[in-house]
Description:
This protein is α+β, with helices and mostly antiparallel strands and 128 residues long. The protein has helices at residues 13-28, 34-55, 103-111, and strands at 3-10, 63-71, 74-80, 86-89, 114-119, 121-127. It has one domain (2-127): Heat Shock Protein 90 (2-Layer Sandwich), CATH 3.30.565.10. The protein contains three helices and six strands; from the N terminus they run βααβββαββ. Helix 1 packs antiparallel against helix 2 (34-55) and helix 2 (34-55) runs antiparallel to helix 3 (103-111). It comes from Ezakiella coagulans.
Amino acid sequence: xxxxxxxxxxxxxxxxxxxxxxxxxxxxxxxxxxxxxxxxxxxxxxxxxxxxxxxxxxxxxxxxxxxxxxxxxxxxxxxxxxxxxxxxxxxxxxxxxxxxxxxxxxxxxxxxxxxxxxxxxxxxxxxx
Length: 128
C-alpha cells in the first residue's frame, strides 16, 4: 500500500470542507480501519480550518496545501498555509499539560503518534 498525494485548496471554508471530503475518500481506498479514518477526518478538518482562520486569515488569495503519504506502517499528513507562521511546537505526550497551542492542535496531537508544528507547516504521523 503506497500513496503520495499533494493538492492545494483556496482559503474558503466551503471549498475546504469539500476538499477534505475528497481527501478522506481517497484515503479510504488505502485504509479501511474506521477508527483511523475518523482520526484522518479530525486531522484534516482541524488543520485546514486552522490554516484558513489563523494562518491565511481567510484571505481568498492564499492557498492551503495538504500532502498525504501512506505506506504499510503509517500515514503522514502535512498541512501548509501561506500565513506568517507560529513558533515551533513539538509537544511531549508525557507533558501535554505544557502544550502551547489551540484546541485544534491539541486534538490533533492527541490522535497522532508524531506531531510537529513549525512556522506555517504542521506534520503529523499516525502509525497503522
